[in-house]
Design a protein that fits this description.
Layout (H helix, E strand, L loop, with lengths): L11 H15 L3 H21 L6 H4 L1 E5 L10 E5 L2 H5 L10 H6 L4 E3 L2 E5 L3 E2 L13 H29 L1
Antiparallel strand pairs: 1-2, 3-4, 4-5
Helix pairs in contact: 1-6, 2-6
Length: 166
């Protein structure tokens, strides 16, 4: 049996109007990216802890970035592993191009319904062992999503304080 619960909240219109007068100027662009960067930090830290360590390249190449599709009113921050030409820009880390093989594993390769080989027969004449998935990015997100929300809230509170004093 369910009970109906009624909650009355007053003053939201005043808060909304006050926030609308601040948000357009102070919660766009760099300020929002600061909030998203703060939210990404616990996820990145957890991913670095969970990533397997052989040379340290993989851990060093986990980072967040401002997504190219970001606009002034719609900011996006991605979390990924630096690879290819982006990895070569850094002097301290190598290219962790293999991170997806660790995250998702690899085995038999099939394209267009035809197999290119199996771990037993090899790929293109080379024997490649199958590797089971060892996810580290998704579990990092799953374990830290609430901490990321709290970090975003804390950063938003700080930015709101800056906007109120401006």
């Amino acid at each position: 049996m369910s009970e109906d619960i009624t909650i009355n909240v007053s003053g939201l219109d005043e808060i909304r109007r006050a926030l609308q007068s601040i948000i357009p100027q102070h919660f766009q662009g760099a300020a929002l990216q600061k909030m998203l960067t703060a939210a990404a930090a616990p996820i990145i830290a957890a991913a670095k802890e969970r990533a397997p360590v052989k040379t340290g390249t993989l851990q060093g190449d986990i980072y967040s970035f401002k997504h190219p599709d970001s606009t002034v009113t719609y900011e996006i921050r991605g979390i990924t592993v630096r690879t290819g030409k982006y990895a070569k820009r850094t002097k301290t880390h190598g290219d962790a191009y293999y991170w997806k093989w660790i995250e998702y594993g690899h085995g038999q390769i099939v394209t267009d319904g035809k197999t290119l080989g199996t771990p037993q027969s090899g790929y293109f004449g080379k024997v490649v062992a199958a590797y089971p998935a060892h996810p580290f990015m998704r579990p990092a997100f799953d374990s830290q999503k609430f901490n990321a929300l709290q970090a975003f809230q804390d950063a938003a509170t700080k930015q709101l304080g800056i906007a109120a004093n401006a």
